[in-house]
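Pasting two entries for a bug report.
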Amino acid sequence: MIIDVHAHVYADPRIKPRPGGTTFMSAKDQIAVMDRLGVDKAVILPLNSAECPAEPQSIGEVLWICQEYPGRFIPFCHVDARIARHPEQITVADFDHLLGQYKDLGCKGIGELTTRIPWDAHPMLCMLESAEKLGLAITFHTITEDVNSYGVLDEIGLPRLEKVLRKFPDLVFLGHSPGFWNEISGDVTAETKNAYPATPVAPGGVLKRLLREYPGLHGDLSAGSGLNALTRDPAHAYEFIDEFQDRLLLGLDFCSVTNDMQHINWLTAARDAGHISGEAYEKVMWQNADRLLRLDLATD
């Protein structure tokens, strides 16, 4: 089985987020890609924060897609922590009311979290506390404040993320984005933090320390950022997968029919060549997602 934990899927996408670009994937487009790559299920991550250049998507649309293609999609919800009131007046109960309804509708997590506020801002802490209480996972994109883009704000070394990992030990975090994956290397700079470095992984990467110290942190291998974390230094990647085989999940992040995501090919080749074990391969491909999102597929 293969589960893609990072997909953006619309019923009938019309808006092109960037000039000269394409729309996001329709459900039919996504199913075609999944069938071609042998992907059984994909998590739909709506993108609704003000900063993210995407067509807004309702939970009703996400659930409709899941209903139209039974067994193929897993719904996540999106909540912007800046709900409509003064930030300091937001409470955990506000999020319990919203997220509890999403959970009752079948959502397994929140994401992709792209809100441009710090991890330790009061509204964010309220949302994370509610998510932990309800057992909803968090898929996030993170950046530094100097970058004019979307994502939860942090710094080199991910100190703000570490604060919430410590504060919410039972919350499942699925990390994504260059700002997350480049911390695998100990030589991160302001220039490489949010880029796609081709240099070998240097010792001392904070991401490995965080994975070792905080069981709630996991790696979403999606997009160019996740794949680059592996392919920039294959020898390191094989050791990384072996050590963290219980903490890594396959993601693809097809945002357009023009994308060419090579994650499955790379991981399968690594397994076939004996660089990673068959056991680790199965965990990354679907078993970790099954366990963390409580899909109960292993018992079917």
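Entry 2 (this is the one that rendered wrong in the viewer):
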Amino acid sequence: MRMKTNGVHKKITAVVKGVECYLPEDKLTNADFEKMVETTDEWIMTRCGISERRILKDKTKACSFMAAEAASRLLKKLDVDPMDIELIIVATVTPDYIFPSSANIVADSIGAKRSWSFDLQAACSSFLYAVQVGSKFIESGAHKKVLVIGSDKMSAIMDYSNRATSILFGDAAGAILLEPGTDGYGILDARLYADGSGRSSLYQEAGGSLNPPTLDTVLNKQHYVKMDGPAVFKFAVIKMADVAEELMTRNNLRSEDVAYLVPHQANKRIIEATANRMGISMDKVMLNIHRYGNTTSATIPLCLWEWEKLLKKGDNLILTTVGAGFTWGGIYLKWGF
């Protein structure tokens, strides 16, 4: 959609107006894992680059609590009335319930009484999928204020006796506010993909309609994350780099035009391979996996939050991700404030 400004019709884009996060206080370090499973700090750091993760230990709190905390902090920071929020999308693989959606609970928790809301699930790609969906409501003129929140309590689906998966994940939430702009900033391009043939490489076997919860599924640990590590690594290394390169080509961006790569924080080696394909140095890569691990839907907004003070209006950012399913994709974002 185009908006008429001073007699000129300008294209509407979805602009990120601010970002905030919520991080649980408790940490699970590699030293802790050395006491839990057969592993070492060196083994973990070499394979994935993670030193510690945040864990939401309070069993009475889950995805919606973290999402609401991040959203409330963001609205306070931007001095936005919750009643002005029109749509809330929560990107998550660990909702509080199968239904109602965690987004519904968030809307109630933050007082967004005039919004509608829903959850979006695309594994680790959930946040970028949600940003793209939210941006379309802005670009169409349907809404002027859309909250997109990535929130996951991965500790709830971890088997802490399995060193292959449990060392990778942490808990967190990150939120952004999208508003319309006509000055060429915001979400300028997106390429999102899915390939269901990879569904058995990373999944939760039970809990859905195919394998509903039973005593046997619980005893057999079928409600925990299961992963074929080598298959996921091989796929992610190729696809994250492919989509980053595609976005640069589509938008005539050279390596020197990119201020930062904002990658999903799944594995340091995957991130390094993506940066190498883009021709950019690691000082232009947002990297915090060593402190938080893979927080799934929260990794990208968490990066934006940590680097927010270093970003300048007009900076070109390439956001990339790969998730179970398989899902993957990227967004070209021109920072707008």
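Dev reply: Rendering is fixed now. As a check, the viewer should reflect this: Residues 2-183 form a domain with the Peroxisomal Thiolase; Chain A, domain 1 fold (CATH 3.40.47.10).
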